[in-house]
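Record type: ASSEMBLY
Status: queued
Input:
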Amino acid sequence: MKSVIINGKKISAKGEIRSKITPMTAFLLTLFVVYCIIMFVLLGWAFLSSFRDPDMFVYYPHVWTSPNPDDFVGWIGFANYASIIEVVPVVTNTISTAARETFFGIILNSALYAFGCAFLKTLVPCLTAYICARYKFKFSKIVYATAIVVMTIPVIGSLPSELTFAMAFGFYNHIWGLWVMHANFLGMYFLVFYEMFDSLPFTYYEAASIDGASDFQQMIHIGLPLCRNTFMTVMLINFITYWNDYQIPLLYLPQKVTIARYLYFFSNVNRISGDPAMEGKYGGRLGALPFQITAAVFMVLPTVILFCIFQKRLLGNLTIGGIKG
Amino acid sequence: MTFVKKKKKISKKTLLFYCAFMLWPVLQFAVFYIAVNFNSFLLAFKKVDANLNFIEWTIDHFSIWFKDGTTPNLRLSAAIVVSFKGYLISTLVGMPMGLLFSFYIFKRLPGSMFFRVMLYLPSVLSSLVLVLIYSYFVTAPFRDILARLFTVSQDSKFVYSEVKLMGRGQVSFATLMFYNLLVGFGVSVLLYANKMSSISPDLIEASELDGVNTWQEFFHIILPEVYPTISVFLITGIAGIFTNQYNAYPLTKGSPVPDSTTIGYLMYDNVVDAKDNLADVKLAQTAALGLMLSAVVIPTTFLVRHLLLKYGPSED
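Status: finished
Output:
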């Protein structure tokens, strides 16, 4: 089906209205193209580097095929990926003598940290918002006002105090400790959930109550199914944030290595030490970029897969606005 | 005729259910917000010995930031400049560019959906990964590109080997900000574009019938409608001046240099340095600095909010 033109606007077969190109939009298109070229060059160059021979890269960083095939191999396939998995225990042992982790160990730590924090950081605001919207008690109004006030009034520099609290309560160096510390109702998503539950007519609950449904059953069968999609979207955003986070594990998990913290350390390391066999095999080559990029590919893989699958959900109808009221 | 408002009686079961589900959020808030911030207040004034035994109350942790020539004073002075410069650049360059990009996406011009994905992609990838690629690229291949583009002679003032994009000097800050502008569009463009899509098509159509051009449409129709979202970014941006790190931590590999250390980075770096020794004075100094900054930020945020409400454009 062809597109048609109505009132100077091109309407596509899908019914989308497309505007005409003007000097302003042409300028913006140029900026976009430049932006995309920069991103493609950066990411493409990095990805291809993960398949290069680190030895050759050290001597000929910008030559893509080996000038001397007797000494160097230009492309080595997935060999760097196997090497990265092999060196993980030695490198994690260098990060912390108490944390000799395997590759799957650091993936598990990351998954536990990211999934646990993301789930609780989504569940607690969701349930609190439901309770506040469903039961309009005075205390609910105080909780709602608190969420607004905390969002509006920024308090800076509480990190030292938070660290001392984590140590005092035994949350320090435990992934479950970070779950507890992050399981709060504060933040923008509380308001998103609240608006959603508040828009549900009260007659639904009243009808269910007459039919004999308890408060818990009303929540499970009426309230929560309403926010299933939003819950998944918020949790996905939180998961990506926690998966990529290295600053909190760096501070609170000295003996548990997540993949983000591993990559932070790995991108600063030049030599491998503490294991003679590995030292002989890799020596000072570990700082070479192909190794570091390979470790980075492992880290971005889950988030890129999630982004590809849930792209529409992530780029969906998330809006904020309004300072009135 | 009189109406008598009947107050519905709350059953015990409902009250129990309510209390059970409110218990955790209230407890968590009481400990990790109220108590933490109260402890932060005490920490700023408290002097302790190596065994964490209380010695005396003091204001030394505050005054050290203002004593000329001390390390905290020198670091803070540099960090304030970097933080404000960073805020100005992201507000005056990043925000207008973000709005223009969103406008392009909103108008559904060629490639807009693809560009939307490309702009959001850096938000999905770890900053560590992007920083790793970017920092290597600007220190090695970029210099080669410069060398090939410009014929460098002995007499030339421009010697490419002296270009230190990642080291000390003004260029280092430029590198930092260029990176942040490059990767920082994702969420803001998404929010602006979504807000623009809620504008009534009738309004746009009426303006087009009146003969407005693209610039006029952007400035006189779109901007006032998106203003509530812009004002949220401006208001939260005030606190951001003192908390943003602009990805300087991974870019400098945790070794701060004056030209790229923001206040947020300075505070985080202090805490990381002192985490193995709770008696380290850096913790108390950071708490004191946070307290002083909060005292500045809270009224400033309210002032900015008031000004934006009073002088900002009206949607009507």
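Annotation: The two ends of chain A are 48 Å apart (CA to CA).
Annotation: The beta strands of chain A are 4-6, 9-11, 17-18.
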